[in-house]
Amino acid sequence: MTVPPEELELAAAFPPAERDRWREMVKGVLRKSGAATEETPLGEIEGLLTRESYDGVPIAALYTRDDAPPGRPGLAPRVREVRPDGEGLAGWDVRQPHAHPDPAVTREAVLADLENGATSVWLRLGEGGTPVAALPEVLRGVLLDLAPVVLDAGEQAAEAAEAFLTLVTERGNQPAASGNLGADPLGLQARTGTAGSLDDAAALAARCVREFPKLRAVVADGTPYHDAGGSDAEELGAVVAAGVAYLRALTGAGLSVDEAFGQIEFRVAVNADQFSSIAKLRALRRLWTRVADVSGAADGTSAQIHAVTSAAMMTRRDPWVNMLRTTVATFAAGVGGADAVTVQPFDARLGLPDDFARRIARNTQTLLLEESSLARVVDPAGGSWYAESLTEELAQAAWTWFTEIEKAGGLAAALESGLVADRIAATWARRRKDLARRKAPLTGVSEFPNLAEKLPERDAAPARPGGGLPVVTYAQDFEALRDRSDAHAEATGARPKVFLATLGPIAVHTARASFAANLFQAGGIETVTGAPEEFAASGTTVACVCSSDRLYEEQAAEAARVLKDAGAVKVWLAGKGTYEGVDARVYAGCDAIEALETTLDDLGVNE
């Protein structure tokens, strides 16, 4: 009988892993691609694979134990959160949003959500949502001692809060009512350019402390910065600056430090960049724990986080792909330790969501909680050297931005002076360039578009007040081109078209023909394929030559001559070579937006 060893060493049969050996193997691969040569030092190999986030945080190809800062679940700096009741639906609050202008429709939707998996409701009231005066009707039948209610009323925050508190008092639910009154004067300034009242927010917080012990009054909302195209660190730095401003206002109104911390909830966006979103929530707890430490708050004080799936990542085109985006974002929110999670319905960009869309949004969370048991694991990302390192680097970048805001006089002053807007605009310009070059691909929009899709019809959603930071979406430039193509098709009965002139056998030209078709279709441009001699019968005036580099050397110039003799006003080539008669090129990493705009112009498609 074999006696098992006291300690099983799983790697005992393998030679020790050495970093330089790994670098040598990577170098061999990079040499084949031309990214490295025989003379490239091993010490430079990892740098060739390292990229930077929009915050300047390096994203390496390999992480080891040395890269991860120490940390234990539940202890400072509290990036690794622990919930004693972290099983099942107690893992996080499933928070459903509602903004229908008809109170009866909103009430029906609220009750349906609460009866089918949601554990709280998020009501958008006033301009851009349900009338504030209809709040008692909307909440008729909702058990306020069981279901938390979060208000979002913008300029009417004080009016909405008063209506809700009156309703809670009339029902005798003061000791048990929970949720948030949604006072966010700095978030209002970011969205509309008009600041709300910090004094009013502080007064609401003081009243909650006195009369409604489970109710919070204040939200530090980071989504305006995210929706304007900001980076993760820019959003985190801004919400921490907002949180600090609220702490000053609340303690100045007579609340203790711990009471003030207990009145603030953070709201941030999570997107389909899984690891960045995980690190973002963990970094926010790290930052707020630091603020708590220097403020003299009680040990164990941590950020209350409401994660919302990104509005900027949502698309109007091929909206069903949004279900995949929100699933990844929700997973990241759960792994990152969000206290409440809101999933945007997949049709949010099309208008007011229908019952099916809200059901899918609810069930996305239920599946992760109940079937995947995600909330049963304490800090699933904990111990990942990549996640731990990314969390720390992101926290440091956010803290640097936060201190810059503080030096400028605080968030209100930084918003008023344009510091925040200018910083975010620069980040959005870099992101927009990556989107245009398809380095940040959008499935169903910039990649694999479906020109034959029939979009579901939805009632128009009420517009939210603007005037502050801009609101952008990652798909906006491609979707504008698709709209332009749709208008042309409606006016003429046919979509704009590009002829793909293929050279050689199918096996030779398929890869580049498929690439070119995918690119042109991202702008709403149909493609037809054939030999250059077939161009005259294609019904278009723009062509793109597609084949291999070898055949380009032999046939590209002649193909371009044939195409132009047949009436082509523009000849593109799929690849990077320069050949006589070829006017422009499309290739991986080219500015697809510029190429598509030029092509639509050449085809006579009106803007």
Walk me through this protein's architecture.
It holds the Pfam family MM_CoA_mutase. With 607 residues, the chain is of the alpha/beta class. It has three domains: 11-67, no CATH class; 93-405, Methylmalonyl-CoA mutase (TIM Barrel); 477-603, Cobalamin-binding domain (Rossmann fold, 3-Layer(aba) Sandwich). It is 44% helix and 12% strand. An eight-stranded parallel β-barrel has the order 3-4-5-6-7-8-9-10, surrounded by eight helices. The protein has a five-stranded parallel β-sheet with strand order 12-11-13-14-15, with helices on both faces. The longest helix is centred in the middle third of the chain and has 23 residues, at 385-407. The model is unreliable at 85-89 (pLDDT under 50).
